[in-house]
Design goal:
Blueprint lengths: L1 H13 L10 H9 L3 H13 L7 H12 L4 H12 L5 H13 L3 H13 L3 H11 L5 H16 L3 H9 L1 E2 L1 H4 L9 E2 L3 E3 L7 E5 L8 E6 L6 E8 L2 E8 L2 E6 L3 E3 L4
Antiparallel strand pairs: 1-2, 3-9, 4-5, 6-7, 7-8
Helix pairs in contact: 1-5, 2-3, 3-4, 4-5, 5-6, 5-7, 6-7, 7-8, 8-9
Length: 258
């Protein structure tokens, strides 16, 4: 149960609503019994934390499923996270997480990214990390950025091509995800460096080449031109504005344009 609580912690934070600290179990139970999906999800979270009720993961799952079956995205995420935990049933997890992610639920998108990554689908993981990152907690945002940096630093040529060709449409990520139809995830943004630091752009793929420009953290709209493995590092040739040169791939990430 302790491990399950830790795995659920992100979702409980992200789906918190303005219910205050007072626990009115009878009232919430009544609404849940009447089919209120938000009440069902809240009641489920109480069964996880033991807030006003006894801790009972099976009761929590039952109420999450009832809410999820009504299309309530936070509950869909929770059902998916439950089945993804310890790989209970990744196929079932994927079904629910994709439903939640398609509605723009950040917790569902984050969990789906982790699930895709665990199965080696790293470019798909990049997509969902990029979509959810702006709406995560600071701790989870840092985790997403770390995962993204590690993937970008070790992209294979096939993955690089997939990244360039990958497009995210409203049908894939849902109308609430604030993504324009046809947005290309091959566009990159500078990340993984300090807010006051800059990313060096060099004339060739490696630190030995001349420094030709510096890009501040958060610079977006970066287009990929070429890539190359240099030792243990992955270098990307980029173009942004009037600047064209090479950067360490560890410090750029897929960008989703608002």
């Amino acid at each position: 149960m302790k491990k399950m609580k830790c795995l659920m912690a992100l979702m409980l934070v992200l789906t918190a609503t303005c219910h205050g600290e007072e626990v009115n179990v009878a009232e919430v139970q009544k609404k849940a019994n009447a089919g209120d999906a938000e009440a069902q999800t809240l009641l489920a979270s109480w069964y996880i934390t033991g807030k006003g009720v006894r801790e009972d993961i099976e009761m929590a799952l039952m109420w999450w499923r009832r809410a999820a079956e009504q299309g309530f995205a936070p509950a869909e995420s929770m059902v998916g996270i439950y089945y993804a935990a310890n790989h209970r049933d990744d196929a079932v997890a994927a079904v629910w997480l994709k439903k939640a992610a398609a509605q723009g639920d950040p917790a569902g998108q984050f969990a789906l990214a982790k699930l895709e990554l665990s199965h080696g689908r790293r470019v798909q993981a990049l997509k969902w990390f990029a979509l959810c990152r702006p709406r995560l907690t600071e701790e989870e945002r840092q985790a997403a950025e770390n995962e993204t940096g590690q993937i970008m630093a070790t992209l294979t040529p096939a993955e690089f091509e997939e990244l360039q060709n990958l497009q995210t449409t409203r049908e894939e990520v849902g109308p609430s995800a604030n993504v324009r139809s046809g947005t290309t995830i091959g566009t990159l943004v500078v990340m993984g460096i300090g807010s006051n630091d800059t990313l060096s752009v060099r004339s060739g793929p490696g630190p030995k080449y001349d420094l030709i420009a510096k890009l501040p953290s958060g610079t977006g709209g970066i287009r990929t031109v070429d890539s190359r493995d240099i030792g243990s590092a992955y270098w990307i040739k980029i173009r942004v504005g009037d600047v064209e040169g090479w950067v360490n791939g560890k410090f750029v990430s897929p960008e989703i344009e608002p």
